[in-house]
Amino acid sequence: MVALRKSGATIMLISVVDPVYSKTFAELIAPFPPPVRELTARLVALVAAHPGISGKGMTGWKSVNFRHASAGHVCSVFPQQDRALLYFEHGLRLVHGEGLLQGEGLKRGRYLRVQPGDDIPLDRIGMLLGEAIALFA
Q1: Which candidate, 18, 15, 11, places its Cα nearest to that of 42?
Q2: Which of 53, 67, 72, 101 has the most crowded CB, counting CB atoms within 10 A?
Q3: Distance (Å, whole) CA 67 – CA 104
Q4: Tens digit of each residue's pLDDT (9 = 90 or more) over 24-77
Q5: CA distance between the termini of the chain
Q6: pTM score, two decimals?
Q7: Inter-axis angle of helices 34-48 and 20-29, to 10 degrees?
Q8: Residue pair 55/47 in contact by the 8 Å Cβ criterion
């Protein structure tokens, strides 16, 4: 179960599975403007809700990294000053990423750049997550 809770100016990810996650997540997004924190929280909650995926806040990488038990590292969410990136480790191989994912100069990864106020393509992200897991599961 994953939920978002607004605590003052901080949005925290609350996870029944990993109670430390919310503190790490709050530290990770604290330096960013409120719209980016909210956007990052939405992307993280979306990915975390996908079956079989678990996330871990990585303050050194400044990201939340998501793994699948069989497929390994699937994707990461990177907050930035004016946007958030949803990075797929093997995005080059994702058929459903055509026209959505960027990163032509990268060897294998691709990313979705989302700015506050943008519509998040929920269905396409769900398809990409399923496809990314199927590559290695």
Answers
A1: 11
A2: 101
A3: 24
A4: 888 999 999 999 999 999 999 999 999 999 998 888 899 999 999 999 999 999
A5: 23
A6: 0.84
A7: 140
A8: yes
The residue length of the chain stands at 137
Provide the pairing of β-strand 10-15 with 53-58. unpaired
> Residue 13 corresponds to which tokens in the numbers above?
């990810």
**What domains does the chain contain, in order, with CATH numbers?**
2-136 (3.90.1150.200)
Q: What is the 3-state secondary structure (H, E, C) of the chain?
A: CEEEEEECCEEEEEECCCCHHHHHHHHHHCCCCHHHHHHHHHHHHHHHCCCCEEEEEECCCCEEEEEECCCEEEEEEEECCCCEEEEECCHHHCHHHCCCCECCCCCCCEEEEECCCCCCCHHHHHHHHHHHHHHHC
